[in-house]
Amino acid sequence: MTGVTIQQKNTDRKQMLEAFDETKTGVKGLLDSGLDKIPEIFVRPSEELSEELTYKYPKIEVPVIDLSAGRIQVVEQVRSASEKWGFFQVVNHGIPSEVLDRAINGVREFNEGDVEEKRKYYSRDDRRNVKFSTNYDLYSSKTANWRDSLRFSFPDQIRSEELPLSCRESTVEYSNHVAVLGNNLLELLSEALGLKPDHLNKLECAKGRRMSMHYYPACPEPELTLGSTKHTDTAFLTILLQNHVNGLQVFYEDQWIKVEPYPGALIANIGNFLQVLTPLVSNGKFRSVMHRVVANREGPRISAAYFLSGPYEENKVYGPIEELISEESPAIYREVHLRDYIQKFLSVGLDENLGLDFWKI
Ligand code: OGA
Ligand code: NI
Fold this sequence. Notes:
The chain is an alpha+beta fold. It is built from ten helices and 14 strands.
């Protein structure tokens, strides 16, 4: 392509993105308008699509951990899963399944509810605590994702009156439960690292209330796009609730592995911040692993990611946990203000994965 046509293509794309953004109704709005082909802004480049054909999809699964089993066994399973996979599912985690169902239904009701109500929350302003949008990185990613999201970020407690009425009660109820589970998992992870149970909690890894509630509408051409581009999470730990429509995949030993939806189960995955705190110890380290969501003819897929991502408004620095550093496993990451990392993260697309290079010494 000549320079002029590339420039023209970029201008066209920008205009298409803006027109889509201005509808303020996201991907769901597109689908409701009755299309049988996906717009060009969602179509992945041909080299990505052909790379896809080289993957095999082996039938192995991320570990499922029963949290009601004996402590020693659970800690060992958490350690092994965090080192090998960076992902695991948990059952018997203490959150009643009705609470999970209500949370999913709340997200559905918001997304399928009154369009004008949704428009009121539609925003790309990072100063807002609660916002609805399609593709938070719409203008910085190479390809748009088939996904709309309602997100909130409170430095401390949730101010429930700021949440949309349709999902207010169910979301607050779920976040209160998941915050308790988050603390429990941080204790297990601390023990799995050979530290005192309260070590990670003392570092304030669980500070803040942050959640992304995703709505992935049915997609008429799922093989051409993605629900979420591959990425690692900007958090210490993510706890993910998903409905019965599958789509989540984890990159494990150079293959994409499906994460099966099990009723009542929750998914936990190690985020970038926790990998930075846990340098190479004798048996490896906790891994922040790449994952993505494929689009699906069936829909909607609904999920809620609760991020334990720490106090990033404050002047607090994070670096490798001293107890884990030794001559055999020296620090490989430097200390960083979470705030700086988040700012960098928000300035690029999800697909331009900063990963952990930003922290490398
Ligand atoms: C995320 C994420 C997966 C999903 O929000 O970071 O990976 O299934 N979500 O929605
Ligand atoms: Ni993620």
